[in-house]
């Protein structure tokens, strides 16, 4: 039985994945129309899945191979001290001893801060160097000169705008800073344009999935379901299935009639007592 | 008062080195259990000592650890030359230790999540079924992942891989992608309802954004494809490229220099524990 | 004029519906082929990968997840495809949890597709180092001792035992580093991996971060860049896929209508705004006259 199920699942997993993905997509997009329970449910499912996956992958690819296996199977017992250090994070939940979590957080913050010397040197020194553009590149005065002058004008005026250590009183400084503000708008416009492109790309990805992956799958599955329904309705070998479905349908109708009649009686009783 | 001779120093350091090598040697069987238990007890003792530290020593301890944490990377950069870099070879192992210790924080956010959702399920508050769904999803994908790895390790064929793939590719991936893709709708709505050109600067920003948006896509290239050869520099893709590589680059560099100095100052303040703010000024 | 003022009060859901309709048209039409324009930074990225010697390895440093799959996925696939077709060894490390599985799946599906023609095999031509928690020392360790830093690959085997890692020890054996990211991790890779060791760095950001990268392209710290899915489509053109319809090419064509639509929305919104301001001023003037 389990082998048949496993086989069926392996054979149909692509179809199941596509249908589940489409369901998730429609559930999240439903909030664009209005806040609804469907969206909230899938939002919580997403949080649960993300957290559970995080636990699994952290163990499977970091803690397992780098901590547990060396400690237990290779005998490197000193890895237990890493667990002791890691446990310091959880003192965050203690009111009295929360400072102990500050030790481990401070350690990691210190590591990042300590790398700033190299960070400043490796990232910004080349930037400073390449900002010294020659006015006559290759010994020629021409478009390169214009380009360099434009570059210096834009960069220094934008930098002047950000100099808040002194007031921009002098007319030259004030004009340069104002020009810098204008040039900064070019940068911000570029960022805005690129942001629009990036966000639309994400939406296009989802719509592409719905239109070119899910829709064809839905069409082929719907055709299969119709064929199956026609087969069940007409083939002699499915007579037992038709009889069972007819009995179930009749039972369902009877139950529904009883349910709605009881609801009507209760409503009448309630209005009768009010009167 | 006798000063130790070179041979005596050598003998002592050799003895300590041998003791160190023997101590950290790999253990197996009951010895491993003893050493792990011993490490746990030493760790518990260290925690107990930390918990007993008087208040006036807490901040200095945090400051010292913060400084020492940064010292390794700082020294690795400052004292190394092309031919002599004693700390660089130590970094891969140091990185592994950091990875392992950092990974232990994986349950940090989870504790809060579990507390909130467990309370909702317990008290059957409004929407408790969502909190229940959170727990179901959490354990479902976690267990599916572990079972898949176990089945792979034992070379057992089954549905574990398929179930895990359904959870990952059928649920987690599309939910994450779709959540992020909603921003596109909000951008479109904001572009229509909120983006107002009230000044010349915003007009300049808008024009730049339009040129760059059109220059990057085929529509923009098609719009100006009819321009004659000598006006090729006015084609949208060329104007867009020039905007990105010249004015934009100069402006981004100017901003970056300002950020760089600020980042260096902030980094130095954090490393030396001089930073102020609610997190840093909190009473220890 | 009145219609513009009336349109100011349009329900936001109408705008959402219009966005979907505008994007659906090119997706349904599925324009064939790739855009012809290839920007210089994509050319340079292609040249860097193409010129990596056979005895060196390329490191793909991936820091993206399902949320930016539409942008970083095509970039990763295009680069992997190029390297597998050319027989350039590469290793991919994912600093994002879910991204680890996604990049592995991309690699595996490309391996399946290219195995017959190019004989591509996992562990021989490429390797996935799995998910690692990013830290400065680990980034530094990539350039100083790659096997120790990565230790095990995604399937659990020791990387030093794999044929793909034969002769790969440190930065001398690394041809290029490609940073495929949706976060601001470029500076970290630059600081600890590529700049100290003189390694070539390629950048594959999402569109939002691409604008800031031009200063690194100018200084030479970044040798080439693939800007979002558009850059991936251009790269696919260079590797000979100009007649194949891919996600990147479909995205590029669809972005054409999308960008024009956004610009039209901004213009309409502002026209309506100016019209309503004018109407308000006129009403105010009439009231004062009364």
Structure characterization notes:
The complex is a heterotrimer of chains A (275), B (284) and C (290). In chain A, 32% of the residues are buried. Chain A is 81% helix and 0% strand. Chain A has 275 residues and is mainly alpha-helical. Chain A has eight helices and no strands. Chain A folds into four domains: 1-75, no CATH class; 76-132, no CATH class; 140-234; 237-275. Chain A is extended. Chain A has helices at residues 2-29, 37-73, 80-87, 99-114, 116-131, 143-161, 171-234, 239-274. Chain B has a domain at 126-195. Chain B is 74% helix and 0% strand. Chain B contains twelve helices and no strands. Chain B has helices at 6-23, 30-51, 58-78, 91-103, 108-123, 128-153, 160-193, 200-215, 218-223, 236-245, 247-271, 278-281. The longest helix of chain B has 34 residues, at 160-193. Chain B is extended and about 90 Å long. The two termini of chain B are 45 Å apart. In chain B, 34% of the residues are buried. The model of chain B has no long low-confidence stretch (mean pLDDT 89). With 290 residues, chain C is α/β, with parallel strands linked by helices. Chain C folds into two domains: 2-30 and 252-289; 40-244, MTH777-like (Rossmann fold). Helices cover 56% and strands 12% of the residues of chain C. Chain C has a six-stranded parallel beta sheet with strand order 3-2-1-4-5-6, with helices on both faces. Chains in contact: A-B, A-C, B-C. Chains A and B meet through helix 1, helix 2, helix 3, helix 4 and helix 5 of A and helix 2, helix 3, helix 4, helix 5 and helix 6 of B.
Keywords:
heterotrimer, A: 275 residues, mainly alpha, 4 domains, 8 helices, B: 284 residues, 12 helices, 0% strand
Number of DSSP-assigned strands of chain A: 0
CATH level-1 class of the largest domain in chain C: Alpha Beta
Strand content of chain C: 5-15%
Order of helices and strands of chain C: HHHEHEHEHHEHEHHEHH
Task: Please report the two chains with the greatest interface, counting residues with C-beta closer than 8 angstroms to the partner's C-beta.
Answer: A-B, 127 and 135 residues
- What is the helix content of chain C? 55-70%
* Biggest beta sheet summary of chain A: none
CATH topology of the largest domain in chain C: Rossmann fold
pLDDT < 50 stretches of chain C: none
The average pLDDT of chain A is 90
How many structural domains are formed by the residues of chain A? Answer: 4
Estimated helix fraction of chain A? over 70%
User: Which structural class matches the secondary elements of chain C?
Assistant: alpha/beta
Number of strands of chain C: 6
């Amino acid at each position: 039985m389990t082998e048949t199920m496993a086989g069926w699942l392996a054979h149909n997993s692509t179809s199941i994945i596509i249908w589940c993905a489409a369901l998730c997509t429609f559930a999240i997009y439903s909030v664009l129309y209005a806040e609804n329970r469907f969206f909230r449910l899938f939002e919580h499912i997403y949080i649960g899945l993300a957290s559970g996956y995080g636990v699994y992958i952290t163990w499977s690819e970091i803690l397992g191979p780098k901590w547990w296996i060396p400690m237990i199977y290779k005998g490197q017992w000193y890895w237990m001290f890493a667990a002791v250090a890691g446990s310091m994070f959880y003192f965050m939940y203690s009111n009295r001893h929360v400072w102990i979590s500050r030790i481990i957080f401070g350690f990691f913050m210190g590591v990042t801060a300590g790398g700033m010397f190299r960070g400043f040197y490796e990232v910004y020194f080349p930037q400073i160097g390449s900002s010294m553009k020659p006015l006559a590149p290759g010994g020629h005065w021409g478009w390169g000169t214009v380009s360099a002058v434009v570059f210096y004008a834009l960069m220094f005026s934008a930098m002047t705008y950000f100099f808040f250590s002194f007031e921009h009183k002098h007319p030259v400084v004030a004009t340069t800073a104002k020009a810098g503000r204008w040039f900064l708008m070019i940068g911000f416009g570029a960022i805005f344009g690129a942001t629009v492109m990036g966000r639309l790309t994400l939406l296009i990805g989802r719509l592409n999935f719905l239109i070119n992956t899910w829709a064809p799958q839905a069409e082929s599955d719907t055709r299969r379901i119709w064929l199956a329904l026609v087969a069940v309705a007409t083939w002699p070998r499915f007579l037992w299935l038709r009889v069972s479905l007819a009995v179930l349908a009749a039972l369902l109708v009877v139950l529904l009639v009883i349910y709605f009649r009881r609801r009507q009686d209760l409503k009448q009783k309630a209005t009768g007592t009010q009167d | 008062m006798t000063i130790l001779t070179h041979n005596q120093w050598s003998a002592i350091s050799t003895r300590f080195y041998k003791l160190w090598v023997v101590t950290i040697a790999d253990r197996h069987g009951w010895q491993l259990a003893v050493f792990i238990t011993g490490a746990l007890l030493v760790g518990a003792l260290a925690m107990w000592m930390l918990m007993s530290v008087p208040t006036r020593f807490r901040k200095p301890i945090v400051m010292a650890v913060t400084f020492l944490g940064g010292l390794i990377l700082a020294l690795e950069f400052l004292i190394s030359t092309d031919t002599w870099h004693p700390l660089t070879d130590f970094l891969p192992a140091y990185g592994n230790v950091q990875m392992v210790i950092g990974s232990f924080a994986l349950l940090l956010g989870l504790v809060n999540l579990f507390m909130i959702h467990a309370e909702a399920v317990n008290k059957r508050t409004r929407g408790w079924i969502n909190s229940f769904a959170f727990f179901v999803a959490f354990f479902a994908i976690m267990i599916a992942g572990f079972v898949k790895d176990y089945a792979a390790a034992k070379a057992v064929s089954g549905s574990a891989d398929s179930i895990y793939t359904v959870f990952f590719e059928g649920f987690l991936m599309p939910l994450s992608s779709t959540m992020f893709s909603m921003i596109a709708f909000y951008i479109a709505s904001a572009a229509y309802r909120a983006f107002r050109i009230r000044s010349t600067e915003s007009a300049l920003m808008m024009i730049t954004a339009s040129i760059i948006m059109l220059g990057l896509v085929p529509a923009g290239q098609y719009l100006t494809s009819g321009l004659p050869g000598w006006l090729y520099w006015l084609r949208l893709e060329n104007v867009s490229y020039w905007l990105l590589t010249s004015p934009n680059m100069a402006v981004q560099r100017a901003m970056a220099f300002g950020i760089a100095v600020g980042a260096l100052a902030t980094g130095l303040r954090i490393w030396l524990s001089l930073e102020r703010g609610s997190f840093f000024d909190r009473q220890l | 004029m009145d219609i513009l003022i009336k349109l100011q009060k349009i329900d936001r859901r109408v705008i959402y519906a219009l966005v979907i309709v505008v994007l659906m048209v090119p997706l349904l039409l599925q324009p064939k082929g790739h855009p012809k324009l290839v920007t210089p930074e994509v050319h340079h990225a292609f040249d860097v990968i193409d010129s990596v010697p056979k005895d060196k390895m390329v490191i793909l440093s991936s820091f993206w997840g399902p949320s930016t799959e539409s942008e970083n996925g095509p970039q990763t696939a295009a680069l992997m495809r190029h390297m597998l077709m050319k027989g350039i060894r590469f290793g991919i490390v994912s600093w994002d949890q879910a991204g680890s599985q996604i990049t592995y799946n991309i690699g595996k599906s490309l391996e399946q597709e290219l195995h017959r023609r190019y004989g591509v095999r996992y562990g021989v031509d490429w390797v996935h180092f799995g998910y690692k928690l990013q830290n400065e020392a680990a980034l530094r360790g990539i350039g100083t001792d790659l096997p120790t830093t990565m230790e095990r690959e995604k399937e659990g085997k020791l990387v030093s035992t794999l044929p793909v890692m034969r002769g790969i020890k440190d930065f001398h054996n690394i041809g290029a580093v490609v940073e495929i990211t949706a976060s601001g991790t470029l500076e970290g890779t630059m600081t600890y991996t590529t700049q100290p060791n003189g390694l070539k760095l390629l950048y594959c950001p999402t569109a939002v971060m691409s604008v800031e990268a031009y200063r690194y392209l100018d200084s030479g710290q970044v040798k080439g860049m693939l800007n979002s899915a558009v850059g991936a489509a251009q790269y696919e053109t260079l590797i000979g896929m100009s007649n194949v319809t891919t996600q990147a090419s479909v995205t590029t064509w669809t972005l054409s209508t999308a960008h024009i639509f956004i610009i039209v929305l901004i213009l309409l919104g502002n026209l309506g705004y100016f019209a309503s301001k004018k109407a308000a001023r006129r009403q105010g003037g009439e009231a004062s006259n009364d």
